[in-house]
Each structure stands twice: as C-alpha cells, then as structure tokens.
C-alpha cells in the first residue's frame, strides 16, 4: 500500500473517533431546569411585562436627566475604558480568525560577497530571496476551539460593558433625583421658616399686649433656630451630590442643571416579568453562562490536544546559488512539505489538562446556577421593597393630609387670640407638619430608588 494511502486511512480513522472535539455549547439540562423553576417570592406568575426590557429613555423621561445620562455615557472614564476593552477583544478575535484561515508568511532575503586573495579571482556574489508560507490544518478542532474561546471572552467583555453602562445610567438617575429631593426639602424648610418668622412677630405683639409671656417667645425663637440650622446641612448635601454627578460626567465640580421634583416621574406599575427572562437581560447571568461556554470549548481544546498537528509548508526562493551545473545564475526554486506531529507521551500533561478543564467547566456550571439564584433573590428583594414603600407612601400621604388639617385648625385658634395652650398646639402642629412633609418627600425618593434598583436588577438599560 502506498504511503499516501496509509496517511489518508490514518486521518480518516482518527476523524471517526474525534467527534467529541467539535461540539457546540448547549445549556446543561440541570441549569436549564433550574432556570425554569425559579420563582419570585409573592409574585403572580402571569406577570409577563418585563420592566427590565423597557428602554431607559422610556423609564427616565425627564429631558434634562436624559441629557445628563447621554453625556455620562459618552464621557465617563469607566465607560470609555470599557469601550477600549471591547476594541482590544475584537482585535484578539480577528487575530484568532486570521490564524484559522490565513497562512504564516515570512520573507528573509540575504546576500553574500566573498573573495579569495592572492588567487587573482574575482569577487563571488550570491543572493537569495526566500519566501515561506505555513498553514496549520485544523483537522481536529484545535484552532476552532481556540477561536470559540476568544469569541466567548469577547461576549463576556461586552456584557461587562453593558453592566457598567447600566450602572452609570442608574447612578446618574439616583443622583439627579436626589438633587431634586434635596431642592424640595430645602424649599419646604425655607417656607416653614418664613411662616415661623411671621408667628414670632405675632408673638412679640401678643407679648406687648400681655397675652403671652417671654418664655413663649423664646421657645418659638429656639424652634426657629433649630429649623434654620438644617438649611446649611441641606445646601452642603446638595453641593456634594452635584460634585458626585460631575465626577460621573468627567468634569470638575460645578452646579448641575435640573428640573423640579416630580414624585410620579417613574412608571407606577412595575412588573418584573417571568423569572426565566433574567437569562436574557442581567449582565451577570449572561457573563456566567458565557464563562460556562468558554470552559466547554476549553475542554474540547484539551481533548483536541491528544490529536496530531497537521501543517503544510511551502517554500520558494529566487537565487543564484543552485550550483555549478546551472548556466543561468538566477533561478527560482520551490518546495512543499506536509508534516504530522502526534503527541504520544508528555508526562501526563495532556491527561492532567483535560481533567482540570472538566473541573473548571463544573465550577462554571455551579457559578451559573448561583448567578441565577442570586438574580432571583435580588429581584424578589427589590420587588418587595418597592411594594413596601408603596404602602408606606400611601400612609404618609394620609398622615400629611391630617397634619395639614390640624395645622390649619390650630392656626385659626392662634390668630383669633387663643391662650398658652393654643400657642403650644400651634408649635406642635407646625413642627409635626414640617416633619411629615419632609418624610413624605423622602418616602417618595426611596420609592423611586427602589424602582431604579429593580430596573437594574432586571438588567435594564436597553436602547
């Protein structure tokens, strides 16, 4: 039997036994079953509208906030660094594809001048212009599995990019709404101070008329100073929050443009969607599955290492040093070589690498399961927190309404000449109303924060 027939039979037999090195990743049955059985606590399963699928511009509808978000996404250093990471990974993938399809070509020209002295001979000149090309034949999936691993790594980097992007969107919204809330609290405090200033003036007049004593006036002034002391604290908080937003914008500290606080700025009906939709949205879940896929192809690569390396090398050169039999000193020569290298004994390295790759794949599968369960926990917590603030906010609204009625009633008694008891009731009513109004604004803000947190937990931020 001729040698090339033996070679063909050997390759054919090897290919028949190497089907397990050309597999395609599929989600493990155990993980797929887990993803289908995950349930959110205290949620209706028929809830099919996924809040996380809503584009961020439809969630954050404030035009000024949208401008801030767009500016942050374009200029934030973390975002720009993530963009560069994607570009680097794309270059790596292109190089992997070139290795898969294109040969390695080298060109190494050389020339020599030699002379024999005292012989009367002329200088001897030789030149050589060799070009060689080498292809590695991917008959056993080595290059293919390497390329697949690079592809998975690129997708992981893109998901990390999405996670950074989503985090910046939500952080910008939180700071922006926080500034609006502080503005609202400052406005409520300053409005209350104006009312207390009028009350103190009225008390001074009543003292002159002998209707109240100095203790009543001093007590009212002390309350006024206590409220006044909160103003610089609120202004300092506003300045620090503006500086934090400037940092996200990659700018030096300055005042931030914003609109007035709108407690109903976010959608009121937030639905988390079916649990398995987490697989299609959350960056951490996607990254966990992509890492599992990468480990799968790494395992195939470890298996393919047991099979031969096939390569074809072609050489060509234009030279004048073919020998004395050549009349014309300039000739072109070419040669081709096909080689096969079969690993036989490498001190257990290949077996060890395969075992390690299997263990890493199992670890990645466990990490994927953990990511699924963690995602369900976070969404369940955020949904519960949102509904908790929803109930609390309704109660706070009712409380503020009652405090407003109580304040109006005591104010009427106070202005019509009530005694000391009426004055104390007025102070108490005004202070209670101030605290109730500040609490209401804070509850509205906390509810907005919980909605933003739920949006992030669902992997929102799509275009």
CATH topology: Outer membrane efflux proteins (OEP)
Q: Sum up the overall morphology in one term.
A: elongated
What separation lies between the terminal Cα atoms?
65 Å
Determine and state the CATH class.
Mainly Alpha
What's the domain count?
A: 1
The number of helices is 11
The CATH homologous superfamily is called Outer membrane efflux proteins (OEP)
Radius of gyration in whole Å, from Cα?
38 Å
**CATH architecture identity:** Up-down Bundle
Q: What labels describe this entry?
A:
463 residues, alpha+beta, Outer membrane efflux proteins (OEP), 5-stranded antiparallel β-sheet, 11 helices, 10% strand, elongated
Describe the protein.
- Helix content is 63%, strand content 10%.
- By secondary structure, it is α+β, with helices and mostly antiparallel strands.
- The chain has a single domain (3-115, 122-457), classed as Up-down Bundle (Outer membrane efflux proteins (OEP)).
- Strands 1, 2, 3, 4 and 5 form a 5-stranded antiparallel β-sheet that branches.
- The two termini are 65 Å apart.
Question: Quick recap of the structure?
Answer:
The chain is of the alpha+beta class. 63% of the residues lie in helices and 10% in strands. The protein has one domain: Up-down Bundle (Outer membrane efflux proteins (OEP)), CATH 1.20.1600.
Topology:
Layout: H1 3-16, H2 29-37, H3 56-59, H4 63-75, H5 77-101, E1 104-107, E2 110-114, E3 124-137, H6 142-208, H7 214-228, H8 230-248, H9 283-304, E4 309-319, E5 331-341, H10 349-415, H11 420-457
Antiparallel strand pairs: 1-3, 2-3, 3-4, 4-5
């Amino acid at each position: 039997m001729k040698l090339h027939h033996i070679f063909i039979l050997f390759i054919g037999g090897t290919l028949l036994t190497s089907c397990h090195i050309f597999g395609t990743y599929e989600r493990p049955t155990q993980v797929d079953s887990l993803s289908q059985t995950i349930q959110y606590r205290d949620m209706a399963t028929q809830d099919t509208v996924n809040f996380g699928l809503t584009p961020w511009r439809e969630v954050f509808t404030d035009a000024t906030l949208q401008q801030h978000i767009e500016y942050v996404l374009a200029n934030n250093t973390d975002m720009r660094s993530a963009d560069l990471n994607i570009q680097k990974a794309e270059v790596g993938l292109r190089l992997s594809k070139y290795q898969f399809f294109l040969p390695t070509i080298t060109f190494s020209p050389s020339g020599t001048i030699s002379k024999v002295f005292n012989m009367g001979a002329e200088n001897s000149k030789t030149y050589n212009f060799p070009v060689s090309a080498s292809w590695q034949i991917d008959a056993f999936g080595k290059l293919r599995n390497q390329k697949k691993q690079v592809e998975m790594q690129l997708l992981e980097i893109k998901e990390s990019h999405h996670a950074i992007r989503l985090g910046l969107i939500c952080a910008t919204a939180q700071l922006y709404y926080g500034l609006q809330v502080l503005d609202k609290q400052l406005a409520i405090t300053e409005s209350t101070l104006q009312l207390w200033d009028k009350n103190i003036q009225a008390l001074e007049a009543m003292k002159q008329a002998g209707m109240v004593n100095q203790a009543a006036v001093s007590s009212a002034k002390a309350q006024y100073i206590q409220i006044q002391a909160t103003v610089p604290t609120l202004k300092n908080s506003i300045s620090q929050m503006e500086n934090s937003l400037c940092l996200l914008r990659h700018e030096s500290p300055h005042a931030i443009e914003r609109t007035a606080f709108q407690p109903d700025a976010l959608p009121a009906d937030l639905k988390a969607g079916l649990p398995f939709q987490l697989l299609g949205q959350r960056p951490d879940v996607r990254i966990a599955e992509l890492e599992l896929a990468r480990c799968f192809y790494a395992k195939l690569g470890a298996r393919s290492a047991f099979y031969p390396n096939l390569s074809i090398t072609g050489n060509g050169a234009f030279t004048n040093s073919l020998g004395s039999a050549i009349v014309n000193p300039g000739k072109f020569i070419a040669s081709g070589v096909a080689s096969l290298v079969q690993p036989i004994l490498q001190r257990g390295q290949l077996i060890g690498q395969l075992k390690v790759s299997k263990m890493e794949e199992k670890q990645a599968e466990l990490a994927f399961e953990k990511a699924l369960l963690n995602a369900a926990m976070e969404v369940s917590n955020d949904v519960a927190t949102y509904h908790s603030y929803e109930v609390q906010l309704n109660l706070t609204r009712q409380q503020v309404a009652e405090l407003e009625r109580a304040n109006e009633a005591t104010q009427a008694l106070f202005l019509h000449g009530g005694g000391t008891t009426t004055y104390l009731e007025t102070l108490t009513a005004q202070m209670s109303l101030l605290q109730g109004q500040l609490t209401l604004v804070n509850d509205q803000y906390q509810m907005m924060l919980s909605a933003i947190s739920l949006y992030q937990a669902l992997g929102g931020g799509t275009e």
